Amino acid sequence: MTNEAAETGDIVPNLIVRHTSRKLGDLDVYESCRRLVAGQISFSEFVDQVGDGFREVLDFMMEHDLHPGRPEEVLFCIECHATAGQRQTLVSQLGEIYENGRDRRAS
Fold first, then answer.
1. Residues 97, 101, 106, 107: is their CA dihedral positive or negative?
2. Residue 105 carries which DSSP code?
3. Helices (H), the chain
4. Interhelix angle for 84-101 vs 55-63, to 10°?
5. 3-state secondary structure (DSSP) of residue 48
6. Of 86, 61, 78, residue with least CA distance to 42
7. pLDDT of 51-68, one tens digit each?
8. Is this prediction's pTM over 0.70?
9. pLDDT for residue 39 is more than 50
10. Which pLDDT score is estimated for 53?
11. Which residues contact 98 (CB under 8 A, 6 or more apart)?
C-alpha cells in the first residue's frame, strides 16, 4: 500500500484488513460471519465479536493472504499447504463461517 493511500484512508483493492480501531458494537455470530465473508470487517474485528473459536483458519488465511470471500481459493490453499492434521480443523472452521454467514432471512 502506498503511503499516500494510507494517509488518505483510500481503499486499496485486494488488501486484507487485519486491524482497525472501529467500534462495531455487539454483533451476533451470524452477522459477524456475514460481514467477514463480505469483507466488511477485519479478522481482528471478527475475533473481537465471536472470540477465538475460528483462530486457526483466520491465522491460516492471514499467513497465506487469503480472503474469506473466496472459499474455493481458501479450500485449494488448505489442500496444498495444510498438514493432514490441520485440514479437518481448517475446513470445519471455514465451513462454519460460511454456514453462519448465510442470509438467515432466506430460511
1. positive
2. G
3. 3-8, 29-38, 43-50, 55-63, 71-81, 84-101
4. 100
5. helix
6. 61
7. 999 999 999 999 999 999
8. yes
9. yes
10. 93
11. 33, 37, 71
Q: Would you call 106 exposed, middle or buried from its count of C-beta atoms within 10 A (0-12, 13-18, 19+)?
A: exposed
Contact 64, 77 (CB under 8 A): yes
Cell digits of residue 37: 465473508
Per domain, the residue ranges of the chain are 17-106
**Which residue matches cell numbers 498438514?**
83
> Nine-digit cell at 99?
454456514
Any idea which residue has 473459536 for its cell? 53
Q: Among residues 102, 77, 106, which one has the least CA distance to residue 91?
A: 77
Placement of cell 472501529 in the chain:
22
